[in-house]
Structure formats: C-alpha cells, structure tokens
C-alpha cells in the first residue's frame, strides 16, 4: 500500500500520470509503461490459463486491464488512508477474477 506517512512515498508512475500526464513527452512515456505492464500481465494470465493455474473463462487482456485498474486504484486510495483496513480482503477479492 502506498502511504507517505509510513515512509512509502507512493507510486511514481501513478503520481506522474496524474500530475504530468498532460505534458506530451512525459505522458507518452508513462502511458507506455502502463501499456507494457498491461501486456506483461495479460501474457502471464494467458500462460496461467494454458497451464491450468488460472481459470480460462475470462479474456486475458480484459483481466489484465481490471487488475491494473485495481492496483493503481489501491495505490491512490492508500495515499488517502481510506483502504488500509480492508486491504487484504480487497486483494483476495480482486484475485478471484483469476479463478
């Protein structure tokens, strides 16, 4: 969880896209990083579906997009302190999309 008051300054990628995303070069670099992560997660989900460790009912690209959205959302909420009490339950629920 990203919480500045505990020495964790948060996610540079999320902070950068929120604060600097409108600058064309910086925004493009940050969007590329997010896209690279999405592609990697989708590939890992696809591999997991092939070996049976991840359920095959959902599209890997869609699940990757959902997981990234949840991950980045948790980072933002962590900075506000509003998601800390239920973080483990939230993560466990989010990972059920891989069943």
From TrEMBL:
Superkingdom to which the source organism belongs: Bacteria
Q: Which InterPro entries match?
A: Tet_transcr_reg_TetR-rel_C_sf
Could you tell me what this protein is called? TetR family transcriptional regulator
The organism encoding this protein is Neorhizobium lilium
